[in-house]
Design brief:
homodimer, about 210 residues, mainly alpha, Arc Repressor Mutant, subunit A, Tetracycline Repressor, domain 2, 2 domains, DNA-binding
DNA sequence: GCTCTATCTTGACATTGTCAACTAGTCAGT
DNA sequence: ACTGACTAGTTGACAATGTCAAGATAGAGC
């Protein structure tokens, strides 16, 4: 009978309900914020009954967790792409590119960022989500590792350095996402701040 | 008739309902997370009817905004106290103390931090809240200003430097609050990371 | 006394998350 | 082709929530 769903997608009744639901989630977060996502609204937009989502995601947190997983996959890809786009550069430049990709992801894909980090979802309690998060962050950890081995920061604690860069990227991302800069600070663009913040890191010149 | 409310507090029926409600909010956020705060639950804990909160805070967001205002007041005080606790130190040391207070606030007063930054509340649309936020951040901005004037960073853009330190503090605070450090990173304590992250800043030695 | 106003209560309504029971397609094995 | 099992989705119900309108209550000012 193939309901209203138009075309090709394979599957049983709907076609590909999980994807349709997650697409709806993205819409809703964009329109009304991560706090106002509801299972029923997502179901409505996907054209199914109000309790269909539960069969795929269990409950509301499950749906948000699935959405967040996609976010971490995208984030990981973007960071890797950023890193690889630096050819012939230093380890510090590659690390800055990873950080830049992190912030750009938050700004360009705010719905994902919001659900991943600011929706109150308990990441560690969702096994697969937790693994996705670790996998994405491995890109950043790897870039820090390269900085240590190639950049001569042999005395630095890799954990400290990782948290330093991660904090920098995550903090700037958070500030950029809710554009509530104090007066005077909103004159510069996000890109200015990205360049400025990661440019500061260039003051590290192997003396650490 | 003075209902169940026991003692001294002044006022009409309840005594001091706004304070009682905000105290209830703190409890609820601590127990069930910022996403699970409800007007009715707060009313229940304060011993009033389910729609009493609306008369003080308008709606749910209004209640969270009032709670967040308190958070910004505390945060501002804590940062100022941190700054003033450094006697005879450099501007950079005072700035590091401000940042440390920021992170400690997030860790020690997580309910406030969560509602202020991660509850989906739209700060700019709440005038008084916005002012409170600006006032608190003025402490950080001031400390950056001192760094520039006293520390010899005359070529640095104060906006860039502010966002740099703010990102660092806010990012570490966020990471610390949801303790989802990747494997290996959770061996160090929050205090280790605070010291490490703000210690990196000491690599800035007036050459910027 | 009386009125006025701030404070709080009651009752209602639509929306939500979740659960149990049910229906409808689809496939494997015979 | 028939049966049974399984997957996908529906229907109906329930308690909880945010919000609104209307009423009740208590203190202030006169």
């Amino acid at each position: 009978m193939r309901t209203s769903r138009d075309s090709d997608s394979a599957g049983y009744h709907h076609g590909d309900l999980p994807n349709a639901l997650l697409a709806a989630v993205a819409e809703i977060v964009e329109e009304k914020g991560a706090a106002n996502v509801s299972l029923r609204e997502a179901a409505r937009r996907a054209g199914v009954s109000h309790s269909a989502p539960a069969h795929h995601f269990g409950d509301k947190e499950g749906m948000l967790a699935a959405f967040a997983e996609r976010g971490f996959e995208i984030l990981g890809r973007e960071m890797a792409t950023g890193r690889d786009s630096v050819v012939g550069g230093s380890a510090l430049e590659r690390l800055a590119a990873v950080g830049t990709a992190y912030v750009r992801f938050a700004v360009d894909c705010t719905p994902y960022f919001d659900v991943m980090f600011r929706s109150g979802i308990d990441t560690p309690s969702h096994e697969h989500l937790h693994a996705c998060a670790d996998k994405a962050l491995a890109v950043l950890i790897g870039a820090v590792g390269e900085l240590i081995s190639e950049g001569g920061y042999t005395e630095a604690d890799p954990r400290q350095l990782t948290v330093y860069f991660w904090s920098l990227a995550h903090g700037l991302a958070s500030l950029a996402v809710d554009r509530s800069m104090p007066p005077g600070l909103d004159e510069l663009t996000i890109d200015d701040y990205i360049a400025g913040v990661f440019g500061m890191s260039e003051l590290f010149n192997g003396t650490g």
